[in-house]
Design a protein that fits this description.
With 143 residues, the protein is mostly helical. Helices cover 63% and strands 0% of the residues. The longest helix is centred in the first third of the chain and has 17 residues. The relative contact order is 0.10.
Length: 143
């Protein structure tokens, strides 16, 4: 494996997918994710996490939760969890701001940081990314 070069790890993952070696592909991406996390490149790390989430179907359902502890280092604050719960219930940022007596701009900042942490860019992706990050939250979100 190309263990000091994350770009080669990702290339190895692509090659492994072409040969239907899904576990190797996921391990390679997991190594690259950990490499970027260990070297403080959180933007690239999150981009790879997002790529991995998008490629789940292509990777034949192989999970990375046990291969990539860096996925679990992404944690939302208590307030971020509360905001996500309201957003998933259909609240707008204006509604969330009124609920917490905050400015709408403050809530937009929270939402931005939530999206960055979850590796998403659209509200439509929020539920799936949130449940993937916090599997135990599914019952609270859906009630």
């Amino acid at each position: 494996m190309a263990s000091g070069n994350p770009d080669r790890m990702v290339a190895a993952a692509d090659e492994a997918v072409r040969h239907r070696k899904y576990l190797i592909a996921v391990e390679s991406i997991g190594h690259a994710i950990r490499f970027y996390g260990a070297h403080g490149n959180l933007r690239r790390q999150r981009a790879l996490i997002q790529q991995l989430r998008r490629r789940r179907g292509e990777l034949a359902g192989v999970t990375v939760s046990y291969l990539s502890p860096s996925l679990h280092l992404v944690r939302l604050t208590r307030r971020e969890h509360e905001i996500v719960d309201l957003l998933l219930a259909g609240a707008s940022t204006k509604d969330v701001a009124a609920h917490f007596t905050l400015s709408q701009r403050t809530v937009e900042g929270h939402v931005y940081r939530i999206y960055v942490k979850l590796g998403i860019s659209r509200r439509a992706d929020l539920e799936g990314a949130y449940l993937a990050l916090e599997p135990g939250a599914s019952s609270a979100v859906l009630d």
